[in-house]
Design a protein that fits this description.
This protein has nine helices and 17 strands. With 329 residues, the protein is an alpha/beta fold. It has one domain: Glucose Oxidase, domain 1, CATH 3.50.30.50. The strands form five sheets. Strands 1-17-15-9-11-13-14-4-16 form a nine-stranded mixed β-sheet. The chain has a two-stranded antiparallel sheet with strand order 2-3. The chain has a two-stranded antiparallel ribbon with strand order 5-6. β7 and β8 form a beta hairpin. α7 runs parallel beside α8. It is globular, with a radius of gyration of 20 Å. InterPro entries: KFase/CYL, KFase_sf.
């Protein structure tokens, strides 16, 4: 198993840049980027499903009560996807200015501030449509040669994303299967999702933000138990069911990369990423804290978040919240 993980890690690191920015032979020739039904200028994909009316409808159904924080803390030494996978820098924070020590009482005024350094895919974050591509293009037939530069993308960056306010649904797969945590590298199927929804008495609606619980965040923040290349997660058929049949607007999960790893597809090391982002225009959120929602059995809520306006970024840290709502039934 360790040899397989090492081999997968090497393949992941070696092919990631080429597959994302310049196209790669690891992708089957039949896989092509999608063209947006919202027109040639679209940069946000299925987020176009939101409207003033849809936001108002969900906000009007908010039930007074607890607000659930779905984001994790950012701190030095925290688990992340990309330092082990790609050798990216880890999250760092350093003080730039601080009060005087020892004789600080003699200061009339003190001043403190700090600087941070991080991958934009650190902690709870959203992947934008520029994050993964096929054959040198990203969502809506945008060429890397035309839209990608050293400081980000001119198309589909985090700065183009609107605030997200929509109905959210938790699908607690771990609980439905009677386990605390799904097994390592377990691939969630369509039947798993249907079984969990039936057990919860929850149904999906077009335009939902659908959040998948595997239980892995019970290990947070133990880096030894939170590894990208042995995580359970969404399978490709399940992703297709959510995106195409259920018409989910955004997906999310309590793991490092949404899908299960390592990939069983020899031609595509991240088939769910490329399918959702490049082919279907569906953004998704990773490393969500879903334990409180699961503990309280809250499966339907108003989901509210907003990416930072990081110009040209392929991802953005977020701090989403969930607020219980009255059922529409």
């Amino acid at each position: 198993m360790q040899d397989l993980m090492n081999q997968t890690r090497k393949l992941f690191a070696a092919t990631h840049l080429a597959a994302t920015l310049a196209g790669s032979p690891v992708f089957a020739a039949g896989e092509q980027v999608g063209e947006s039904p919202w027109g040639p200028e679209d940069e946000i994909g299925t987020l176009n499903m939101m409207s003033d009316a849809s936001r108002l409808e969900i906000l009007q159904r908010i039930d007074a009560g607890r607000i659930y924080d779905l984001g994790v803390d950012l701190f030095v030494g925290m688990p992340d996807c990309c330092s082990a996978a790609f050798g990216d820098p880890t999250y760092q924070m350093m003080m730039l200015h601080a009060p005087a020590r020892g004789d600080g009482s003699k200061e009339l005024l003190s001043h403190s501030s700090e600087a941070i350094s991080m991958n934009t895919h650190t902690g709870t974050h959203i992947d934008t449509l520029s994050h993964f591509g096929l054959h040198g293009k990203i969502w809506n037939n945008v060429s890397a040669d035309e839209a990608q530069g050293a400081r980000g993308w001119a198309k589909s960056g985090a700065d183009k994303y609107p605030p997200i306010i929509a109905r959210g649904v938790l699908i607690d797969v771990a609980r439905a299967k009677g386990v605390d945590v799904l097994p390592a590298s377990y691939t969630i199927t369509v039947d798993d999702l249907k079984t969990a929804l039936d057990a919860q008495g929850t149904s999906l609606q077009e335009g939902d933000v659908v959040l998948i619980r595997t239980g892995q965040m019970q290990h947070w923040p133990d880096r030894s138990k939170l590894a990208l290349f042995s995580q359970s997660g969404l399978g490709l058929d399940a992703a297709k069911w959510l995106a195409e049949e259920q018409k989910a607007m955004v997906l999310g999960a309590d793991n490092l990369g949404l899908e299960s790893f390592p990939s069983t597809n020899p031609d595509n090391f991240a088939p769910v990423h490329s399918y959702l982002l490049a082919q279907k225009g569906v953004s998704f959120i990773e490393l969500l804290w879903l334990e409180d929602l699961a503990r309280d059995g809250v499966h339907e809520f108003a989901f509210i978040t907003s990416p930072l306006k990081l110009r040209g970024a392929t991802g953005s840290p977020i701090r989403p919240i969930a607020v219980p709502i009255r059922s529409s039934r």
